[in-house]
Structures are given as structure tokens and as C-alpha cells.
Design a protein that fits this description.
This protein is mainly beta. Helices cover 0% and strands 50% of the residues. The termini are far apart.
């Protein structure tokens, strides 16, 4: 029996958007033909072409002491959909099985939270729990009413709307050791006394008009 060791390994190459021949990147997932933002090959490798960030993301598998990148189109069926791209992968290490990767672009999102938290809750510092796989329950109440971003960089929130069933006095976004966070077309239901963004530990952000 073949044993697969998951998760997949990956490589992100900052500053080298086309590690492969750029002509291989034929599927536009975000942006358009004239101004592509995220593009993909006929196999699961992606190039990111965004303001302040370029790079590649590709996937591979490890089995025992062997490893291989998933960049052999002959073993991969590709299906471009209206909201992303699907890859169906067969490989000798998968025996008679197959693996399916579905890549989706998320934008124009509306979230409705319960709300009802106090300004004191906005001062909390959730534990790191770095030795455990991150699950929502292990952090308890977070200091942000919408998004708490920690130890991250180059994240863009695009056309996101957040509302609440009850008034919430926490900052909408709390950035902790988070750099180059961009908010474009973000709408958050809040009162005047509530901060839109609170920064901690050298965090930085931009609010960009549509």
C-alpha cells in the first residue's frame, strides 16, 4: 500500500513571478488579459502580480524519501471555471486514486457577525499556541470585531462588507505584526467611537479607494 505524507509541500518565490516560462501561465484567475493579477498554468502553479507583491506558489507531494513537483501536465486534467480553476491529478504514488485541487478567488464578500462585545474585549491579546494547528476555539474572544491579522504580510481585503446583529465596541481590524495590509472597498458597520483599524507591534496598512 502506498502511503502519502500530507500536507503538500509548497514553495513561494517572492520577486520572481515567472519561475517557469511565462507563456505557460495561460489561465487568468484575477484581473483581466490586459492587467492580470493572478494567473495559473495547466498544472497547479500560480503567479501573483500585485502591487507590492510578486511571486509563485507551486505544489508537490512527498512519499517516503521521494518527492516531486506537480508540474507534469500529462498527469493532470485542468478545468477552468467561472470563479477559479480545478486540477485533477493522478500519479503513481497515488496508486489508483486521484487528488483534486480547487483554486478559488474570493471577492465581494458580505459577513454578518453576532457582535455584542465590549471595548475591554478589544484590548485582549490571544495566546499564540504556535505548537498546535490553528483552530478558532483555542484563541477565545479575539480583539477585533471583523478580522484579527497576526504575523502576516501582503494581504488585501477587497470589496468586503461586515455587519453585526448587535453593536460591537471592538476595533474592526486589529493588525499585530502585520505589514502591508491593504483595504480596498471595505465597509464595516460601526459607531464613530470605534476604530476601523488598530495596529500593534509595527503593523502597517493602507486604505485604498476603489
Amino acid at each position: 500500500m502506498t502511503r502519502l505524507m500530507l500536507p503538500f509541500i509548497f514553495m513561494f518565490l517572492v520577486g520572481n513571478a515567472f519561475a517557469q516560462d511565462k507563456n505557460l501561465f495561460i489561465h487568468v484567475l484575477a484581473g483581466n488579459k490586459d492587467a492580470p493579477k493572478i494567473v495559473a498554468c495547466a498544472f497547479p502553479e500560480f503567479a501573483f502580480l500585485m502591487n507590492g507583491m510578486t511571486g509563485n506558489f507551486k505544489l508537490g507531494i512527498i512519499s517516503g524519501g521521494q518527492s516531486t513537483w506537480l508540474n507534469h501536465p500529462g498527469n493532470i486534467k485542468t478545468n477552468k471555471t467561472k470563479d477559479g480553476i480545478d486540477f485533477e491529478i493522478t500519479n503513481q504514488w497515488l496508486a489508483k486514486g486521484k487528488f483534486v485541487i480547487r483554486a478559488r478567488v474570493l471577492s465581494n464578500i458580505r459577513i454578518l457577525y453576532r457582535g455584542g462585545h465590549s471595548a475591554e474585549d478589544g484590548k485582549l491579546a490571544p495566546p499564540e499556541n504556535e505548537k498546535l494547528y490553528p483552530e478558532p476555539w483555542m484563541f477565545g474572544t479575539i480583539p477585533a470585531s471583523a478580522f484579527f491579522v497576526r504575523h502576516a504580510a501582503n494581504i488585501r481585503f477587497h470589496n468586503v462588507q461586515v455587519g453585526f446583529m448587535e453593536a460591537d465596541d471592538r476595533p474592526a481590524f486589529v493588525l499585530d505584526d502585520a505589514r502591508n495590509i491593504r483595504l480596498t472597498g471595505v465597509e464595516v458597520q460601526k459607531t464613530e467611537k470605534v476604530q476601523l483599524v488598530e495596529t500593534r507591534n509595527g503593523s502597517s496598512y493602507q486604505i485604498i479607494e476603489n
